[in-house]
Amino acid sequence: MQKNFITRRARFFRQCLNIAVLIATFTTLNGCVSTQNESPYTYAPSASPYQDVVNAQQRAVEQSKLLLVVLGAQWCHDSTGLAERFATKEMDLILRAHYETVFVDVGTLEDRRNITERFDYPIYYATPTVMVVEPKTSALLNRTSMDIWGRADSIPLSEYIQYFSRFPAMTTAQKAPFINWEATDEEEAYNKEQALRLQSAYDKLGPLLALDLQGNTPQGLNELWKETKGFRTELQKTLIKRAELTLDSENGNGVNTTPALRQYNPFSWEHN
């Protein structure tokens, strides 16, 4: 009898434990779903990412806010690091008050040039790419500082707060140089040519990255990644430097210090 009692009691406790686990699991899953639904700071696949940006820009105009476009991916730690900072109480307050924010998922390095070109920017050179836009004119207000967000996960929250508080405080006069900025015909043609080459590298990397995310790292991925990173980093650095000098009203000494439009060596696969 004692044995039967112990057996029945053990069975009862196991049943209670199973019920508790089910309740805890349901609560956890329900909490995850709720968090994802409530947070606008997620890189979710979309059937029409370009239209998402167009719609967000229209809302920004209607609400007299700035447009904030973030191109990134859930597999990228800097992209998710930025999303985590955005979700803090301090940043969420700033973003909801002053920005219409749209997150664009780039998947495994998919082509999003139709979005960046809308704001006179050739391509995304890093994930995340953060674009602060004056929505009525499509002017890119952070054109000369976009490169910092390639290391978004290492930037402290205090710098996020300072950075994104700056643009809503800009005066009309401060915005004017960015609104009036335009690339020369030579530079525009060069940027398109190099963006096409970079996208071809992304197209090579994309399928390899997809395999890696499935836990099957293919041979040659790391080498190709490093090669592409070197190219895109130098491209963006030159692009930003040229924009800085163009926008610098004090650069009137008559000396041409604008970086040359460099011609790069072929990629390794372009030799074949």
Automatic annotation (TrEMBL):
The keyword Cytoplasm does not apply. The keyword Signal applies. Pfam families: Thioredoxin_7 (PF13899). Keywords: Signal. Residues 1-31 form the signal peptide. InterPro entries: Thioredoxin-like_sf. This is Thioredoxin-like family protein. It comes from Alteromonas macleodii.
